């Protein structure tokens, strides 16, 4: 049996991720720089604590972490 770890950002975190990524990508493209991408870090906590996502070192918000069997 194989398993997958599914990490889901909530709506607010997703919106902030897309906003920041858009601003950075636009600035890089406007300056003839190849888009560098984003660093997304997820701290996975034990089940009864909140897992958190960070983007370029700044907290985005809580994430849902689920183990799914295929």
Walk me through the topology.
Layout: E1 3-9, H1 11-30, E2 40-43, E3 51-55, E4 58-69
Antiparallel strand pairs: 1-4, 2-3, 3-4
Outline the structure in words.
With about 70 residues, this protein is of the alpha+beta class. It has one domain (about 5-70). The protein contains 1 helix and 4 strands, in the order βαβββ. A 4-stranded antiparallel β-sheet has the order 1-4-3-2. The protein is elongated. The mean pLDDT is about 90.
What can be said about this structure in brief?
The protein has 70 residues and is of the alpha+beta class. It is 29% helix and 40% strand.
Keywords:
70 residues, alpha+beta, four-stranded antiparallel sheet, 1 helix, 29% helix, 40% strand
Q: Strands of the largest sheet, in order across it?
A: 1-4-3-2
Largest sheet: 4 strands, antiparallel
Which value, in Å, is the CA radius of gyration?
Answer: 15 Å
> Low-confidence runs (pLDDT<50, min 5 residues)?
none
Give the count of helical stretches: 1
Q: Give the integer mean of the pLDDT values.
A: 92
Number of strands: 4
**What class, by secondary structure content?**
alpha+beta
DSSP helix fraction: 25-40%
Distance between the termini: 7 Å
**Series of H and E elements:** EHEEE
- State the shape: elongated
Task: Domain count, please report it.
Answer: 1
Strand content: 35-45%
């Amino acid at each position: 049996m194989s398993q997958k770890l599914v990490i889901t950002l909530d709506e607010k975190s997703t919106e902030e991720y897309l906003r920041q990524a858009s601003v950075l990508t636009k600035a890089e493209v406007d300056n003839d720089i190849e888009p560098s991408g984003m660093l997304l870090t997820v701290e996975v906590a034990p089940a009864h604590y909140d897992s958190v996502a960070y983007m370029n070192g700044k907290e985005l918000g809580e994430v849902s972490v689920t183990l799914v069997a295929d």
